[in-house]
Amino acid sequence: MSTQDTEVAEPDLQERLESSTGGRITISVLIVVLLGIAAIVVMPDSITKRAIVPAVGRAANVIGLDQGWALYAPTPRGLATYLEARVLDRDGTTTAVPIPITTGLSEYWDYRWQRYGDTLLNGPDNRPRWAPFARWIADQQRSAGRHPVVVTLVNISAQTQPPAAPIPRTPWVERQFFSIGVG
User: Fold this and answer.
1) Are 94 and 148 in contact (CB under 8 A)?
2) Gap between the Cα atoms of 97 and 151, Å rounded
3) Tens digit of pLDDT for each residue in 26-76?
4) Residues above pLDDT 90, as percent of the chain
5) Phi-psi category of residue 121: left, alpha or beta, with phi > 0 → left and psi -120 to 50 → alpha
6) Residues near 173 by Cβ (< 8 Å), separated by ≥ 6?
7) Do residues 80 and 117 make contact, with C-beta atoms less than 8 angstroms apart?
8) Using alpha carbons only, what angle is made at residue 85 by residues 95 and 120, rounded to the nearest 5 degrees?
9) How far apart are CA 83 and CA 155, in angstroms?
10) Rg for the chain, CA atoms, rounded
11) CA distance 37 to 33
């Protein structure tokens, strides 16, 4: 039997953390912090929440705990919005590039695109994200063999109606809100 055959594999980081008292304490503290961040994010609007959110908001956003439930109660959002990029090519053609909206099982892994599009559309704090997203769209178009010169971001929205209304929403309205030269 060689020395290679008798070597014992080194435990990985997870095994080392779980087998030591300090590691278990670290994991427990991390779980408590994550639960605390989630509890703060879903708190009803209050002076306390407004005071605490700036301290945990960025962390909640990075780890995906920035879920707001105002969509459901007490006053559901009354506006349906979609983001679309319009790409003007060097030859004068325009291509519409919507945020992917899928159905079925793919909704579970593609929903991040809808969430990202919604984030870009809501609030002036997201303005710094517009140019990088537009440049990314241009890069995707270049990868497909196109020659983009201008990318324009468009908000397509409609006012939703209460459930008993004769029509589900008002007509769709398009509003260009950002444009950048990329050529």
Assistant:
1) no
2) 10
3) 999 999 988 888 888 878 778 888 888 888 878 887 777 776 666 566 677
4) 38
5) alpha
6) 156, 157, 158
7) no
8) 170
9) 5
10) 23
11) 6
